[in-house]
């Protein structure tokens, strides 16, 4: 057989005791229990998810009788356009959030202001 068998005196990787890892509770530090994703990001995602469900379906049923007089093809096309509008809106909000994260984490310039560092970066372009 091509696999190696573990002898009884050897410990597998799962059975090894790792005493070299410093645990936060043992060293006196508090563990970080904050969520990995900020609450604002979760709220935006839930809002756009709700809009992606409600806006196209709602626009279809409102427009099929009121706007297009029973023509479901045009109402379906409007629903598709509304779904694309929600998707494009989400992309724009996500890009704006990503750009704001970059400007917040930019290193300060010689006088200590981040705004001066951004202006210097724009001059270099």
TrEMBL record:
<dbReference type="GO" id="GO:0012507">
    <property type="term" value="C:ER to Golgi transport vesicle membrane"/>
</dbReference>
<comment type="function">
    <text>Required for the assembly of the V0 complex of the vacuolar ATPase (V-ATPase) in the endoplasmic reticulum.</text>
</comment>
<keyword id="KW-0968">Cytoplasmic vesicle</keyword>
<comment type="similarity">
    <text>Belongs to the VMA21 family.</text>
</comment>
<feature type="compositionally biased region" description="Low complexity">
    <location>
        <begin position="105"/>
        <end position="117"/>
    </location>
</feature>
<dbReference type="GO" id="GO:0005789">
    <property type="term" value="C:endoplasmic reticulum membrane"/>
</dbReference>
<dbReference type="GO" id="GO:0033116">
    <property type="term" value="C:endoplasmic reticulum-Golgi intermediate compartment membrane"/>
</dbReference>
<feature type="region of interest" description="Disordered">
    <location>
        <begin position="100"/>
        <end position="125"/>
    </location>
</feature>
<feature type="transmembrane region" description="Helical">
    <location>
        <begin position="74"/>
        <end position="96"/>
    </location>
</feature>
<dbReference type="InterPro" id="IPR019013">
    <property type="entry name" value="Vma21"/>
</dbReference>
<keyword id="KW-1133">Transmembrane helix</keyword>
<feature type="transmembrane region" description="Helical">
    <location>
        <begin position="39"/>
        <end position="62"/>
    </location>
</feature>
<keyword id="KW-0472">Membrane</keyword>
<protein>
    <recommendedName>
        <fullName>Vacuolar ATPase assembly integral membrane protein VMA21</fullName>
    </recommendedName>
</protein>
<keyword id="KW-0812">Transmembrane</keyword>
<keyword id="KW-0256">Endoplasmic reticulum</keyword>
<dbReference type="Pfam" id="PF09446">
    <property type="entry name" value="VMA21"/>
</dbReference>
<dbReference type="GO" id="GO:0070072">
    <property type="term" value="P:vacuolar proton-transporting V-type ATPase complex assembly"/>
</dbReference>
């Amino acid at each position: 057989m091509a696999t190696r068998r573990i002898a009884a005196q050897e410990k597998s990787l799962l059975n090894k005791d790792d005493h070299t890892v410093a645990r936060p509770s043992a060293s006196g530090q508090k563990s970080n229990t904050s969520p990995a994703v900020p609450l604002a990001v979760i709220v935006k995602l839930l809002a756009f998810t709700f809009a992606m469900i409600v806006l196209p379906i709602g626009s279809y049923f409102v427009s099929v009788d009121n706007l297009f007089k029973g023509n479901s093809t045009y109402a379906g096309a409007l629903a598709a356009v509304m779904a694309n509008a929600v998707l494009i809106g989400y992309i724009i909000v996500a890009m704006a959030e990503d750009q704001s994260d970059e400007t917040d984490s930019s290193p300060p310039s010689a006088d200590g202001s981040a705004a001066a560092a951004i202006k210097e970066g724009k001059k270099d372009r």
